[in-house]
Design goal:
The protein has one domain: Four Helix Bundle (Hemerythrin (Met), subunit A). Helices cover 70% and strands 0% of the residues. The protein is built from seven helices and no strands. Helix 1 packs across helix 6, helix 3 packs antiparallel against helix 4 and helix 4 packs antiparallel against helix 5. The longest helix has 30 residues.
């Protein structure tokens, strides 16, 4: 759905996020190969999901809300985001050796997979129908360009609907980057991974 190879549209950017998270889910579930890296990989899942959700809340949901049937699509997506965020907050302090780690992680995987399926079935067609390819590419570039300043952790008190998220996002992103730099177990993907 992109006009050129170098400029993926927003749908391609979001699909790439979905694929990256799916790969991380598989790694966390692969106890044999990644047993010693499961916490690091679970932390990376949280980082990727939060960045993805913030990008959607800042750039996608506001424009989709005004499209045909957009309000119900966005309301449903925000409800799914809130459920995933609650699971991420539960998961973040847990270690893979904790009794409930796998239970919470499996719930997060299921919630995310359901949300991804819904996005690809409802949100993406809404975007494709409402906006010309050039605008979708412009939006894709905005989302990609903002990756490094987005928060990487769920923040229960942060405002999610714009404009609140637009103002708070870069500040929380800075706090998260400092926190991530101090935590050696977190894998960083925002540098050179586009």
């Amino acid at each position: 759905m992109s006009t050129t190879e170098d400029t993926p549209d927003i749908i391609a950017v979001l699909r790439d996020d979905h694929e990256r998270v799916a790969e991380l889910f598989e790694k966390v579930q692969d106890h044999a190969r990644f047993r010693h890296r499961r916490k690091e990989l679970a932390d990376q899942v949280v980082i990727e999901l939060v960045r993805h959700m913030v990008a959607e809340e800042q750039h996608v949901y506001p424009i989709v809300r005004d499209a045909v049937d957009g309000r119900s699509v966005v309301d449903h997506a925000l409800t799914a985001d809130a459920a995933a965020e609650a699971l991420m907050r539960r998961l973040e302090p847990l270690e893979p050796t904790d009794e409930v780690f796998d239970q919470v992680f499996i719930k997060l995987m299921a919630a995310t997979r359901s949300h991804v399926a819904d996005e690809e079935a409802r949100l993406f067609p809404c975007l494709a129908a409402a906006f010309p390819p050039a605008e979708l590419c412009e939006l894709g570039e905005k989302v990609r360009a903002g990756t490094s300043v987005r928060p990487t952790r769920p923040y229960p008190s942060a405002p999610t609907p714009p404009p609140g998220g637009l103002l708070v996002g870069p500040v929380l992103g800075l706090v998260d980057r400092v926190r991530d730099a101090l935590a050696p177990s977190v894998v960083r993907t925002d540098e050179g991974s586009h």
